[in-house]
DNA sequence: AAATTATCGCACTGATCGTTGCGTTAGTGG
DNA sequence: CCACTAACGCAACGATCAGTGCGATAATTT
């Protein structure tokens, strides 16, 4: 990562340039396909000299990774509603709302296709947040689903729709997804077994569209 | 799509050039990041003149779309094991095996980030195949899950892991995913309600890795 | 407040990309 | 077997990109 902002000189000018470049990247991705994201184009949009972008970020891939990391960090907070269901519904709803923005979606799609770490920059925080929600529920003494399952059946469907569907999932759909995931009867015998399951027949799972 | 092969002159030379270019694209994507997929690079690898690639495909995005469409069509066949569980397990296992190939994965990641239709070329056939499996089960008189749910809870986790996880899901994991999805007790009262659910607590869902 | 130094803008150069016109090759049909 | 034409290779051109050295600016430190 470049992250020159926090390294040595976080002064006003560097920060302003960084913000302008980030904004330009998001703007360009929203307008044109990802392949049009060249350094000169970004620099021109940001009102910055191309040399600056070349020196600070090097390649479009690194620039994209930096923007994605910055954009997908801190924009969604972990709620504390008092219950696992409430936390998950609110959090996944916020994530879905975030992904519903076409600009954000374009950024994520572009980040997936470029860079060595793929789109990992887009979901790094999500896993930590989800893990925090599950951990909190366990600290309350409640039964929480396994992290593996929560990722597979909450983030999986949501991001699948976001990536491959023309119309991404809505916040309401995400909340219903949480309800569906948690609504399955705990077939486990021991109380140690985590809750969380799915009964797709009783809950209306019709999202906005699936492509 | 260009698809010049089936349009006017499917002669030996055109087909050979097309195959060479497709192979070169897959090869380059497996070696270098997607941004290095330039027309001259592809042409040089394929042993073809760049002008040819420019004329037939125009842009790297269209070329990628053509390659993805070709690669993700026909490589997985819809099985007929006699049961819904068997069909789904075999089919999703095949899909997972296909996605486990790093070259295929790189192609899909690149296809997502480029082109107007995103990665739709990667999953167009998958939805039709899954729908065919469900339809067949219903024609047998059995209860099959809703297409929406099957996509969300089978393709969703599988593709999520493939895209965002360093180590994609294995064929065995995919089969367990099917078993888990279908294993939930049919909480519906009427027989008309589709089967398919999830009880993550009783089935080991540990995949190879999740990042 | 002055010195220091990281960062940016500018001008310049080489390299690669994208495109076009034209001749050649090789499938297709009579 | 011969005419026809689609597809390819070749060469050349302009345009854009990628990279470098140097001076100017501004944030940081003393």
Key terms:
homodimer; 211 residues; mainly alpha; Arc Repressor Mutant, subunit A; elongated; DNA-binding; HTH_TetR (chains A, B)
Oligomer: homodimer
What general outline of chain A do the C-alpha atoms trace?
A: elongated
> What ranges of chain A have pLDDT less than 50 throughout 5 or more consecutive residues?
1-7, 186-194, 199-211
Going by helix content, strand content and strand pairing, the class of chain A is mainly alpha
Roughly how many Å apart are the termini of chain A?
A: 35 Å
Our Rg estimate of chain A from Cα atoms comes to: 20 Å
Mean pLDDT of chain A: 82
Q: What letter string, H or E per element, gives the SSE order of chain A?
A: HHHHHHHHH
Largest sheet of chain A: none
Verbal overview:
Two copies of one chain form a homodimer. The first copy, chain A, has 211 residues and is mainly α. Among the domains of chain A are: 47 residues, Homeodomain-like (Arc Repressor Mutant, subunit A); 100 residues, no CATH class. Chain A contains nine helices and no strands. Chain A is elongated. The N terminus and C terminus of chain A are likely disordered. At the A-B interface, α6, α7 and α8 of A face α6, α7 and α8 of B. Chain A binds a DNA duplex (30 and 30 nucleotides) through α1 and α3.
